[in-house]
Amino acid sequence: MFGAILMASSFGGCSGPGPGLEAPGGSVAILSGADPSGTSWMLPQMERLVFRVKWLSIPAGEIISEIKGVETLRGRPVYRIEVTARTTGICSALYRVEDRYVSYLDVERLHTLRHEVHRREGGYEKDAVTDFDQEGHVAHFVSATDGSEKTFSVPPDVQDTITAAYVARLREMAPGVSYEIPVCNSEKNYQVFLVASRRSSLRVPGVGEREVVLIRPYARLGTEEVKEGRMSGHIDAGPGHIPYLIVIKAPVFTKVTASLDPERSSFSVPGLSP
Fold first, then answer.
1. How many C-beta atoms surround the C-beta of residue 159 within 10 A?
2. Residue 42: C-alpha distances to residues 91, 176, 194, 208, 273 (Å)
């Protein structure tokens, strides 16, 4: 969900699962990109998803998430995935955001090989690249902003915040299903859990009535749960799991929504195309 609004601004919208959201028996499947089981739909080589973002019902900006083809990185075929986020209108005047994230997802093994961050938020700037050695289970971070470098351990088949969302789209999402995803964000290793809770119908402007699944993510850093706000997403129940609506509720009077704009998007999944 790209990356669920960048994993809710770096996990700010992830929280504990809450009552009734655990999988039956408390079982959680490890979502491994290298394991093709449960994959009934393949990522396309080209795709564009555009989301309108609102803050407290006020138009605030847009997020564009694109698969921009297949390239070669360190001898491996990779999807190049770019996500851009920007504020518009009054929100841009109050706090300008011009962010771009680029991820390289191994086509066959379905784990991240590189993640680039280019952030412009108010007076804050960050340009950095993290390369992942999935065989050695290490990552190397380089900041172009201040020249700092860092090498650190990562778990097997680790994802970044963008690739995690795309790999999750390949798996079954039905009520009672839960997945655990190892995710690296800001040089830290998180456990991110996706919990599918229920099916319902959602009228999507420009698409029509669709059957959707409600997804709630939560995250842990070590043994500590991340407890800053709550996030939920309504995704198509069919293959490809196109996300239609993402809602983030923060503790202090803040609600952010991102809704798919089908007219500006370009995607193709069985039974659904704009």
1. 31
2. 37, 23, 20, 24, 15
| Chain centre distance of CA 131 | 18
Domain that holds residue 207: 2-261
Single-letter code of the amino acid located at 203: R
Residue 271: inside a domain, yes or no? Answer: no
What Å distances lie between residue 221 and 73, 185, 188, CA to CA? 29, 10, 8
Name the β-bridge partners of 220: 191, 225
Q: What is the pLDDT of residues 193-212, one digit of tens each?
A: 999 989 999 998 888 899 99
Map tokens 């093709």 to a residue: 36
Cα distance between residue 211 and residue 226, in whole Å:
30
Choose between 5 and 178: higher pLDDT.
178
d(CA 1, CA 168): 9
Position 36 in a domain? yes
Instruction: Give the residues across from 265 on adjacent strands.
Output: none
Residue 273 belongs to some domain of the structure: no
pLDDT at position 205? 86
Number of independent structural domains in the chain: 1
Ranges assigned E (strand) in the chain:
29-30, 46-55, 58-73, 76-87, 98-106, 112-121, 124-133, 138-143, 149-153, 178-185, 188-204, 208-221, 224-225, 230-236, 243-250, 254-260
Residue 231 lies in a domain: yes
Nearest of 97, 96, 41, 48 to residue 68 by alpha carbon: 48
Which pTM was predicted? 0.87
Q: Which of 252, 246, 204 is nearest to 83 (CA)?
A: 246
